Amino acid sequence: MELPQKVKDKHPVFTDISELPGVGPATAEKLKEIGYSTIEALATATISELEAAGIGEKKAAELINLARESIEISWVTAKELASIKSNIGRLTTGSKALDALVGGGLETQSITEFFGEFGSGKSQICHQLAVNVQLPPEKGGLDGSALYIDTENTFRIERIEQMAKHLGLDFDRVSERIIFSEAYNSDHQMLLLDKADKIIKENNVKLIIIDSLTAHFRSEYAGREMLPERQQKLNKHMHKLLRLARAFNAVAVVTNQVMARPDEFFAPTAVSPVGGHIVGHTSHTRLFIRKTAGKNVRIVRLISSPYLPEGEVLIKITTNGVEDVEESDKERR
Length: 333
Ligand code: GTP
Ligand code: MG
Fold this sequence. Notes:
The chain folds into two domains: about 5-70, 5' to 3' exonuclease, C-terminal subdomain (DNA polymerase, domain 1, Orthogonal Bundle), CATH 1.10.150; about 90-330, Rossmann fold (3-Layer(aba) Sandwich). Helices cover about 40% and strands about 20% of the residues. It has helices at about 5-10, 25-35, 40, 45-50, 55-75, 95-100, 120-130, 155-165, 170-175, 185-195, 195-200, 215-220, 225-245, 275-280, 325-330; strands at about 90, 105, 110-115, 145-150, 180, 205-210, 250-260, 270-275, 285-290, 295-305, 310-320, 320-325. Strands 3, 4, 5, 6, 7, 8, 9, 10, 11 and 12 form a ten-stranded mixed sheet that branches. Bound molecules: guanosine-5'-triphosphate and magnesium ion. Guanosine-5'-triphosphate binds near residues 118 and 122.
């Protein structure tokens, strides 16, 4: 949006890193290397991160401030963005019951974690969300694209086609708006996210998926002595994700396989999400998904949310995607 000259003079608004005063090609390159190629992302940086890339403390603070101011100005001047809060968007899961459980759909600017055992439907939900985000807001979407980080090679374009068709969307168009990357190991996974800000901005990404968040970390950092390092890296990764979700007003979704804890076999806490407290604290909404005797039916339990009560609902995973369970399905369960 074009701002009046008067406002511009008072609060310079920068739309590109290279416009910042004192940022020459060398500094721009340094910033890019550590994952800050856009003003939006830079606004979420910390001074110590920039210092680690060889930028002096004073300059780091200045750059971050300028980036923050630039963004605040655009919030203040855009009428529809009058407050950050009213800016929070909601993304439908495809099930009205599940949407209601999380207060009207998955929220932008925070992380939602789906955890459950193998085959419980975590990846299916990710596929569905990647399609749904493209819907217009009146249909529960965010009119944006999806960034999909697949770590287990389980992304299936055929499933996207089935889900898109079911929603009456053009498959070609839908597949163009899913930006996909496969992460080969945990470092690559972190790197992909660190370098994502430009892609997110250029493609109007409104959903960032990491499926699975923890698989690589779990296999690479096996054993107790490696736990602190693993947790530290996961923590960094999650914070980066959170900052991107905030900077670009996007929904962030991660999946997490659970380890069985046979001692508490039937309790909903009978499984511990991999990553323990670190993942738990940075995911704002945690959903535990489990299989039932009914073929397509799954139970989704809200385990933790900043403001919603715990509860659980049933959903169905069919060829069409994620759907509500009808009364007739419940009887058969
Ligand atoms: P892990 O990644 O192994 O931890 O599992 P996950 O939780 O990601 O499971 P995923 O989402 O891959 O779920 C697989 C299950 O989804 C299958 O066992 C099926 O029950 C269901 N599913 C997948 N594709 C279809 C489909 O085309 N039609 C139907 N009806 N169900 C499907
Ligand atoms: Mg999966």
